[in-house]
Amino acid sequence: MKIPKKINTYCKYCRKKTEHLVSEVKKHDRGTLKKGSIKRALARGVAPKKGNRGKYGSKPAISKFKRTGAKSSKKHAFKLKCKDCNKTQIKTYKRAKKVQIQ
Ligand SMILES: [Zn+2]
User: Fold this and answer.
1) Structural domains counted in the chain
2) Distance (Å) from CA 35 to ligand 1 centroid
């Protein structure tokens, strides 16, 4: 996916359309497990220091599921800096394998 360096978009601080500078942001990492999988890990007793650690689980470990790690693309986040007020806002686009800022 190619994204231009400068785009005209709405600034919520100026309350109008202005020119923005685009740069990529590294997304904040909130651990390897998502909310749903943490809940499941707790239920199965796999989560650290809880229960029987999956000894009597009826399902295999999450890492042995068929579709684990199936997605090959990532969601990208961008920092948009307003030229008028110099404030930034973060916007996420749809999934893409590669992103180029031109
Ligand atoms: Zn602005």
Assistant:
1) 1
2) 35
